[in-house]
Specification:
single chain; two-stranded antiparallel ribbon; 6 helices; mainly alpha
Length: about 180
Amino acid sequence: MAQKAAKQQAARNTAILKRTHLISLAIAIFFALLRLLIFRSSCTRATYLLYACFSAPAFFIEFWFERIGRPVTAPNGELKKSGEDLEAKGLTDFMWDVLYWTWGCTVAATILGDKAWWGYVVVPVYSVWLAWTTFGGMRKGMAGMPGGDSGADTVNGAMSNRQKKQEKRGGQKMQYR
């Protein structure tokens, strides 16, 4: 069975994309029906403008996933390209987080009203926090490299009292790398 992994990837991507599109469609219909039928008095042009603005990232991400993840087949049915892994870590994972949060904010705005869109502020805050922790981790990881803040000050300052006493007595010397 040739290209078994590629065929499995293609099947997984197709299922994920189908599920994503159905959920997005269901949320859009839910928003429209509840806003038009039940919460008609609070439904204004601004409501639909807010919906369009705050749902645009989700639609963009869905389009992007469709573009990179949809398998491509030849006219004879042979798999040409299985598509990128939609379950990959990194940027893809972050884009899924934004998509899920957008869906949650849309449902909240449908039920609670336009003020629920303020929940979307979490996305940029989360992005800044993620970038800061990533940068901080890189900075700590590069501390021991030549030219960075390295060296003996950090190692000697991190010694326990017991280690200091042992070295003072000339006993068992500790070697640090």
